[in-house]
């Protein structure tokens, strides 16, 4: 027996394809809205999920406000102490600024310092010469005369 030739599904029906009809759009003036109503009742206590781990909510005790008050008082005392310390440091800063030389140019400051070192060295040389004369006059060493005057050999 021979079977009929296979037909494709597209050509299987001889009816024309269905025509699509436009979907009617509702008129907003004709639509009616109804309020939503709950479809189920809320679960009762026995139906709610209860965690096996208890998480108690801490309740404020009478001691908590006093601890907060103590902390606040301690912080206020610390702030007052720091403010007084700041005022003291600022006063010291102002005093030291007044003691600074008026000259701000580093080259001039260095030159003035070198000049003072020269004066110091010349004065020390004269003083050591006089101490040497005293030592020769007494017939003792310079170290003994320095010790007598309370001057260290390194000065």
TrEMBL record:
Listed Pro residues bias regions: 15-27
Regions annotated as coiled coil: 72-99
Keywords assigned: Coiled coil, DNA damage, DNA repair
Biased composition (Low complexity): 28-72
GO annotation terms (biological process): meiotic DNA recombinase assembly involved in reciprocal meiotic recombination; meiotic joint molecule formation
Region (Disordered): 1-72
InterPro entries listed in its UniProt record: DNA-repair_Swi5
Taxonomy, superkingdom: Eukaryota
One cellular component term from this protein's GO annotations in UniProt: Swi5-Swi2 complex
Protein family according to the UniProt entry: Belongs to the SWI5/SAE3 family.
Entry protein name: Swi5-domain-containing protein
Lineage, broadest ranks: Eukaryota, Fungi, Dikarya, Ascomycota, Pezizomycotina
């Amino acid at each position: 027996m021979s079977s009929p030739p296979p037909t494709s599904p597209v050509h299987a029906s001889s009816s024309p394809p269905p025509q699509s009809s436009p979907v009617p759009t509702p008129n907003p003036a004709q639509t009616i809205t109804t309020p939503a109503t709950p479809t189920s009742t809320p679960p009762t206590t026995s139906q709610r999920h209860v965690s096996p781990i208890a998480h108690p909510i801490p309740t404020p005790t009478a001691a908590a406000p006093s601890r907060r008050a103590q902390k606040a008082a301690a912080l206020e005392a610390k702030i007052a102490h720091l403010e007084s310390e700041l005022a003291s440091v600022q006063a010291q800063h102002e005093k030291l600024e007044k003691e600074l030389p008026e000259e701000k140019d580093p080259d001039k400051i260095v030159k003035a310092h070198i000049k003072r070192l020269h004066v110091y060295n010349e004065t020390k040389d004269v003083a050591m010469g006089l101490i040497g004369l005293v030592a020769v006059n007494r017939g003792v060493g310079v170290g003994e005369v320095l010790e007598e005057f309370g001057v260290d050999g390194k000065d």
